[in-house]
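Researcher: Sequence of Sugar ABC transporter, ATP-binding protein follows. Predict its structure.
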Amino acid sequence: MATLSLRGLTRRFPSAERPALAGLDLDVDDGELLVLVGPSGCGKSTALRLIAGLDSPDGGTVSIGGRDVSRVAPEDRDVAMVFQGYALYPHMTARDIMGFPLRMRGVAREERARRVEEAAALLAIGHLLERRPGELSGGERQRVAMGRAIVRAPAAFLFDEPLSNLDAALRAELRVELAALVRRLGTTSVYVTHDQVEAMTMGDRIAVLRAGELQQVGPPRAIYEAPANTFVAGFLGTPAINLLPLERSGERYVGAALSLPAPPGVALPDRAIAGVRPEHLRVAPGRGSHGDAGAQGEVEVEARVVVAEPLGAETFLYLDAGGTRLRARAHGFATPAPGEAVRARLDPRDVLWFDAGSGARIA
Ligand code: ATP
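Model: Prediction complete. Tokens:
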């Protein structure tokens, strides 16, 4: 069992303009599953490779269980990495593949057999142990790859997009299994993904990275409900949050699509960005009254449906409100058709407020 600490971790590739990782500070608690998430090129894989020792930092340290391992060879860091894809030896059986890391470490045959059986039982692949990778499905191969990591009982698991080559249904199934397995084993884990759904559903905490810089760390719900800035707000949530530039006009903030009362008790700049989650826009057919609607101080926006994407349980609606695009979510199929006039209602208390200049959240 171990904690993992990164301090000022920096990596500059000679050919690049900006550092791939610019002074990353991050602590992963003992037994915690931390998801490192961000768009392509933000430095996630670089961070993981530095933790594993597959690459050397230009600055900063990596500590595992309180020991500075920055200069320790990968094989002596006591971490197991699970990659995307399946780097499984084609000529070996699943049993041999899983036992291989133990053999390399000189673990005796009986002990090896016992630990492989144990891991296979945990992963429900006991019946597949005599097969070779070519005789396994994508999901089964990924379980074998996972098995190879867990037989070693390492201090930490490092996952680099392990599910990205699988189809959507299998990915959804395996992410639940994998998170449950890691929790059962209680092994400190860093899980890298660009998939915000994996981040939201799997992580005890999420660390959001952008262009080599950490934006925010916290439990998934806290990050979703209180994002540090417009980037984090825009990265988590499907469809993406509406970010609407508004300008102060007396006691209100006014934009092209809507006008909102200034939030009580906070000093906002003259130019602000209102963040409106699609699920907070309640869409109903027909035209409505302008401005505030209802006794609860709800705000109403007139719009027209541009695109409706029915997903079954819900429909994503893309609206046009006087030239401003709005994304909304509605339950089930019972939604207006493209071209139809609608009203979108919003409770101003659901709005997130950001500084228009820095993008930082202010309310
Ligand atoms: P993805 O999700 O696409 O894998 P990532 O977040 O894992 O992206 P990294 O692979 O860590 O991103 O890359 C971070 C940045 O460093 C990118 O701009 C990338 O082009 C650059 N980079 C990575 N490896 C090298 C290298 N060996 N030489 C030069 N630049 C590199």
